[in-house]
Amino acid sequence: MQHVTAVVVTYNRIDLLKECLQALREQKVDRDTQLDIFLVDNASTDGTKEWIDGMVSAGDAEDRRIYATHLAENTGGAGGFYTGMKWAYEHGADAIWIMDDDTIPQADALQKLLDGMMCAGNEVAPQDEIGFVSSTVLWTDGSPCQMNRQHYVGQEVTVSGKGAEESALTLQAVDSATFVSLLFTRVAVENKGLPVKEYFIWGDDKEYTLRISETYPCYHVKESVAIHKMKTNAGSNIVIDDIERVPRYFYAFRNDLCTAKRHGTKEVCIYFAAFFLNMLRILFKSRDGKKMRIATMWKGMTAGMRFAPEIGGWKQ
């Protein structure tokens, strides 16, 4: 029996959480796969705690065991995934499938990831353990989700599926992806540690997937599909984003510099080139809040010069 734990991090989005959980309960997987669900409530105040507690006590008709933890404070996506993945590892998961509460995986999304992981291990990289496999992420209208594109480092490879449907799968090597329907192997988590919880939000997925892919081959399984129910289909862009969201970019500029420092001088130079290009774009293209946008960038960058949280093992 293969044990998979799905980790969902949620914060004050009870309606989306209900939809996400229903999609997880409806996953069609082989009989030798046990799917458990672990919900990480980041101190929600909208009734999420009470609803989750009801779900946990009621159990699941499909034998999907549901577990949960309620954090005392909002630790952001980074803290939530740290907590959830640590719990899954400590409770014996063979693979850990992670997503936010606004992620709606199609019914065969997990099985396609499992098939892709097995095919990669057997055919594409037979001498290597696999780090992670990721799904295709679409927006609500079926178009590619701009915020959730993988970074490719290899050509597409077509393999024959070995799972329930035995259909062809398209795999493409990646070195980074976002935390929207990623399936990690136990060995990768054990040997490369957990996400950096101090990142809070933004950039934690890039840092962690780059860390995994430094050692293990990782792939995008294109036939595995999840819908990301974001309000708009737009990537992160401090130049044009709504003014009320601008303070959040502090974490992006702080965390990205921290990650760049870990990867050497070239990445730091790329960071600063992009930094000053964004400043120019704000000056010439932003419709409002130019001073606030630049101040946020500067605050994040200067904090990033000192920011160096420790990366330890899974017991950190």
Automatic annotation (TrEMBL):
Pathway participation: Cell wall biogenesis; cell wall polysaccharide biosynthesis
Organism of origin: Roseburia lenta
Protein name: Glycosyltransferase family 2 protein
All copies of domain Glycosyltransferase 2-like, residue ranges: 6-117
Coiled-coil intervals, chain numbering: none
Annotated keywords: Glycosyltransferase, Transferase
Record keyword tRNA-binding present: no
Keyword Transferase listed: yes
